[in-house]
Design brief:
By secondary structure, this protein is of the alpha/beta class. It is built from nine helices and ten strands. The chain has one domain: P-loop containing nucleotide triphosphate hydrolases (Rossmann fold). Helix 5 packs across helix 6. Bound molecules: adenosine-5'-triphosphate (ATP).
């Protein structure tokens, strides 16, 4: 590990991005330090997913630089250090024929190939990852029979099995009920504090996440705010007005997700970059 790597997990400098002529991100500057828990918030269409794709090297910036663990993203190769859970993760339908254990083991494919050839210590890693998200008793349950919140935990476990240093979560609580959301955030906080995993949580649900994060970035094409949670709390009203307009109650966004609930596509099996 180099000096640089211990310094910043992610750095974004003067980043600009557009889809054709449509400007989506303007002059974004961001730093994510090891052990931090960043909430990246912004309204629908503010560019959150686009920024995430840029961070993961899935899109190329028009201008600017992105580095992961001190390495420019275009030459970065240690993808097992990064776990990614997308918003479509909780979309297995009830007939999907895989157990919790099998789904989590998929997180090791990049390392070991087919899970039926998993060695004992790999099986142990799968079990540990399942335990980390508090789902031990569901190991041999069918994934499709679990609730949205439980499925989402399993996807986190799948991302954790390769022991990432950075975990990026895109709207992980879409379609999850309020109590489960709280439990879910408690679990994330625990991973952050006890395991030292750096977290980036992308959400438009600013209300629930702000109790848990250490840092906040508010995005709406440009970054309206990027700093620690305490400073964010002081400027909260101002930020909300700048990003969402005067009449919008932030709480309302919590319950605005139902249109996502019925997606049943399974393409997210490829969602973790290996
Ligand atoms: N492939 C694409 N081609 C053209 N425009 C796109 C494409 N993907 C997204 N956009 C547009 O770019 C803008 C930013 O989209 P993006 O998905 O990054 O926002 P977001 O903050 O993640 O939104 P949401 O919270 O709704 O997921 C939106 O106006 C969107 O319509």
């Amino acid at each position: 590990m180099t000096q640089k790597e211990t310094f910043k997990v992610l750095e974004v400098k003067n980043l600009h991005f557009s889809y054709g002529k449509f400007n989506v991100l303007e002059d974004i500057n961001m730093k994510v330090m090891p052990g931090s828990f960043l909430g990246l918030v912004g309204p629908n269409g503010s560019g959150k997913s686009t920024l995430m794709k840029l961070m993961l090297g899935l899109l190329n910036p028009d201008r600017g630089e992105i580095s992961l663990f001190g390495e420019p993203v275009h030459s970065f190769k240690q993808w097992s250090r990064i776990g990614f859970v997308s918003q479509k993760a909780n979309s297995f339908n009830s007939g999907f024929p895989a157990t919790v254990f099998e789904v989590v083991a998929m997180g090791l494919y990049g390392k070991v190939g087919l899970f039926r050839f998993l060695k004992k210590h790999h099986k142990q890693k799968v079990k540990e990852a399942i335990a980390q998200v508090g789902m031990e008793q569901y190991e041999f349950h069918n994934i499709g029979k679990l609730s949205g919140g439980q499925q989402q935990r399993i996807f986190i476990a799948r991302a954790l099995v390769s022991e990432p240093d950075l975990l990026i979560l895109d709207e992980p609580t879409v379609g999850v009920d309020a109590q489960s959301v709280k439990n879910f955030y408690d679990m994330l906080k625990d991973l952050n504090v006890r395991k030292g995993i750096t977290l980036i949580l992308v959400t438009h649900d600013i209300g629930a996440m702000s109790d848990y994060v250490t840092d906040v970035a508010c995005l709406n094409k440009c970054l309206h705010f990027h700093g620690n949670k305490e400073t964010f709390e002081e400027k909260r009203e101002e930020m909300m007005t700048a990003m969402y307009g005067h009449d919008v109650s932030v709480i309302e966004h919590n319950h605005d997700h139902h249109h996502h609930d019925h997606e049943h596509d399974h393409d997210d099996l490829d969602g973790v970059r290996s």
